[in-house]
Amino acid sequence: MRPVRIALLLGMALLCTAAARPLTICTPGPYIVFFEWGSAKLDTQAIAILDNLLDNLKHCDAASLAYDGSLVDLAVDGHTDTSEADAVSWARADAVHLFFRDHEVAEKRIKALGHGAKQLRITTPPDIRENQNRRVEVVLGPP
């Protein structure tokens, strides 16, 4: 009878340990990826940032951490500096969108938009190249 009691106590201890595990905290972002002038190509640094976001997204889903009971989605917002065409912002957003799709994030969970030079991080006059404005911002958020 004593071994059963020990096993039962061990089972309870394991249960308590599992229940006491801290919850995974999702970092909503923004995760910011920067680009060369006129380019929508993801460099190694951009890929590392997006890989980090994918890891975070997996933990959020695994922990069932969601907004209003829904899975976390990705808002992908492309931007340009004032010297680039608006179409470049869409190409950047598409590049990040394709990265997620290629890494098996469901299409319906990704919303990609291009904003051109309408939401500058650093305000500049027209036709100025500014590295901080050539970006894609990805935010985890409600569907």
Can you give a write-up of this model?
The protein has a single domain, classed as 60s Ribosomal Protein L30, Chain: A (2-Layer Sandwich), CATH 3.30.1330.60. It is 38% helix and 15% strand. It has helices spanning 2-19, 44-62, 86-102, and strands at 31-34, 73-78, 110-114, 135-141. It has a 4-stranded mixed sheet. β2, α3 (86-102) and β3 form a beta-alpha-beta unit. The model is unreliable at 1-22 and 62-70 (pLDDT under 50).
Properties at a glance:
disordered N terminus; about 140 residues; 4-stranded mixed beta sheet; 60s Ribosomal Protein L30, Chain: A; alpha+beta
Task: Write the SSE topology.
Layout: H1 2-19, E1 31-34, H2 44-62, E2 73-78, H3 86-102, E3 110-114, E4 135-141
Parallel strand pairs: 2-3
Antiparallel strand pairs: 1-4, 2-4
